[in-house]
Fold this protein.
Amino acid sequence: MQISRLQFITASASAAELACRGGVRWVQLRAKNLPAAAWRQLALDVQAVCRHHGAALIINDNPALALEIGAAGVHLGQQDMPPAEARALLGPNFIIGGTANTFADVEKLVAAGVDYIGLGPFRFTTTKEKLSPMLGLAGYAELLAQCRAAGFATPVVGIGGVALADVTALLATGLHGVAVAGALSGAANPTVAARLFIHELAGNHSIART
């Protein structure tokens, strides 16, 4: 499956609905600290939204749940199940993404065969409890240059406090796209905000990656 240039991270089916109405076609369900039954029900609710809109559902940190409900894939943090173990569980057709903060993290994920990498955080964000060092534009430029020099082709997505005004500069570093949470769910009109992000990402589709 194509890795979306706009990934929406949420713990709410209603937020997913509003974002998908605006054109979002990739929803990552991040619902930590929920009892198993509640997590499963939430995943099914979000999956129903995704299926209605033709969007991919990615489950954060729970490969077993992704397998059980037939989600499109999983996103694994650095403290979660190793990607190779998740691949053995899920098989070749599930999307597997991983979180990175350094080039060494990226190297490990590429070697493990992930389908995409969430690299961040860009700036401070309240959606993560344990925040890695912030990268900023200079950090992305340096890391993406290292990726190109190493010949890595795995799509890299910027994450962590990304706002609409950041998109052009972030894509110019060589990022494939962005993952956002509050920029959509906290917007006055999440559906319109999603459309604006998609427009901005599409407008920069031809930026050189050299």
Summary: Strands lie at 6-10, 26-29, 56-60, 73-76, 95-100, 116-119, 156-159, 177-180.
